[in-house]
Design a protein that fits this description.
37% helix; Rossmann fold; 2 domains; single chain; 15 helices; binds adenosine monophosphate; alpha/beta; seven-stranded parallel sheet; 449 residues
């Protein structure tokens, strides 16, 4: 299939050709025609699979073909969970609108409010935004959504996980009319709140699940290494950074303080690294992202802040210095490499503190993961094993029955984890129960803005 098969507006086609795209990706093949027919969509596809164009092209086509419902109101609103993802979407949109009369603006939290008011006064056709800030402008009447034709929710699962449901409902209500079309994209469709939300927001949606979140990304080679403690993780990291053939590298850590500490440690050893931590203001974050995107730094050290939305073709390696607490975050982190058909390497370091997350990820990926080792780095940690079944005597049966009473001792399986003597300096997480999704989210949220 070719882009020319969609019957897109000739100016849009020439922009696509100019960008060098010939064949639509799988999600584009399904989503573009369905959206062009006016259907609401609930779609999922793996990260880096071209889903941005899958919603931007039908949006551009709709604007080119249909008369606006209102002269002043935005015609398309695209909402994303993070500022980084919003910027990424905006960058692709700008490429598409460059050959048209359509104006697009970016409205992000953390940026100057009054400047945004001025920009909204210019009646843009497209708004790409994070939900919190856009809802603030809506509440204050800086724009209206009565004429909105297309509402696009990118990474809807993440927006809901981050607690944006109220803002999404507000935006939805403000644009509640028969002619509105809604496209909802989510990394996974296997998300109760997304499904609930879809029922509320979408009209007879078509479901498109090209490849689910846990699907193997063939362009990314995943390797897992065990580590006894922090010192060993650092030794492994040093080994990868000095021995692997690489282009740009993103290192993910669990906490902001680790991000800064690691970046400093790397720069002290003359490696060109920079830290993107949540404590920086938006301007500083933009500056770091831009300089990394321009190739001025080889290594970006970050928390999950950058796990979505960074679309950098030169990232050859993603290193999980710590495993993400939220399993789906693993897919997003490693999706920063292997973009648009390039090959990527994802290296994950698993210490005692990561074991629970690792087991959850293994279950999520639906595959048995084996570990690789590095010559010269001797690791004692081999994972935390569930405790052996404890044998307890069954209570004598007090009810008289004709059946023979089975008084053999019964096995009681206690789901708990053993302390590991070889765990070195690292603290062991002792959990009787796996984390609930809410607990995981709360702890992930603390790492973010
Ligand atoms: P996305 O999943 O939307 O973040 O896109 C990932 C990357 O794939 C971006 O760099 C896009 O520019 C690129 N891309 C999107 N569609 C195509 C296509 N049909 N052919 C080649 N590259 C594409």
């Amino acid at each position: 299939m070719q882009f020319s098969d969609f019957g897109l507006d000739p100016r849009l086609m020439s922009t696509i050709e100019h960008l060098g795209f010939t064949e639509p990706t799988e999600i584009q093949q399904y989503a573009i025609p369905a959206a062009m027919k006016g259907h609401d969509l609930i779609a999922s596809s793996k990260t880096g699979s071209g889903k941005t164009l899958a919603f931007l092209l039908p949006a551009m086509q709709r604007l080119a073909k249909n008369r606006a419902l209102s002269k002043r109101d935005p015609r398309v609103v695209i909402l994303t969970p993070t500022r980084e993802l919003a910027k990424q979407v905006f960058a692709q949109l700008r490429l598409l609108t460059s050959n048209s009369q359509f104006k697009a603006v970016l409205i992000l939290g953390g940026e100057n409010f009054n400047d945004q008011v001025k920009v909204l006064e210019k009646d843009p056709h497209f708004i790409v935004a994070t939900p919190g800030r856009l809802a603030d402008h809506l509440t204050q009447g800086h724009f209206h959504l009565n004429g909105l034709e297309l509402l696009i929710l990118d990474e809807a699962d993440r927006m809901l996980d981050l607690g944006f449901s109220k803002q999404l409902e507000q935006i939805n209500k403000a644009a509640d009319h028969r002619k509105r079309q809604t496209l909802l994209f989510s990394a996974t469709l296997d998300h109760a709140q997304v499904n609930e939300f879809a029922t509320e927001l979408l009209k007879k949606p078509k479901r498109i699940a090209v490849e689910a979140g846990h699907t193997e990304h063939v362009d990314i080679t995943k390797r897992f290494y065990l580590a006894d403690n922090l010192t060993q993780k650092e030794a492994l990291l040093h080994h990868f950074l000095t021995s692997e053939k690489s282009q740009q590298i993103i290192i993910f850590t669990a906490t902001r303080s680790d991000t800064d500490r690691l970046a400093k440690m790397l720069t002290d050893t003359d490696l060109n690294a920079v830290a993107l931590s949540g404590e920086l203001n938006q301007g500083q974050r933009n500056q770091i992202m831009d300089s990394f995107a321009k190739g001025q730094h080889k290594i970006l050290v970050t928390t999950d802040l950058a796990s979505r939305g960074l679309d950098l073709i030169n990232v050859s390696h993603v290193i999980n210095f710590d495993m993400p607490k939220h399993t789906e975050e693993f897919v997003h982190r490693i999706g920063r490499t292997g973009r648009a058909g390039t090959k990527g390497d994802a290296i994950s370091l698993v210490g005692p503190n990561d074991w629970l997350s690792f087991k959850n990820i293994e279950a999520f990926l639906q595959q048995k993961i084996s570990f690789t080792s590095v010559e010269g780095i001797k690791v004692k940690f081999q994972g935390l094993k569930p405790k052996k079944a404890k044998v307890v005597k069954a209570k004598p049966d007090t009810v008289k029955s004709k059946k023979a009473v089975d008084s053999r001792p019964r096995k009681v399986i206690k789901k708990t984890f053993l302390d590991n003597d070889d765990a070195g300096a690292m603290k062991i997480i002792k959990r009787k129960k796996p984390l609930t999704p809410q607990q995981i989210e709360d702890s992930t949220k603390k790492e973010q803005d």
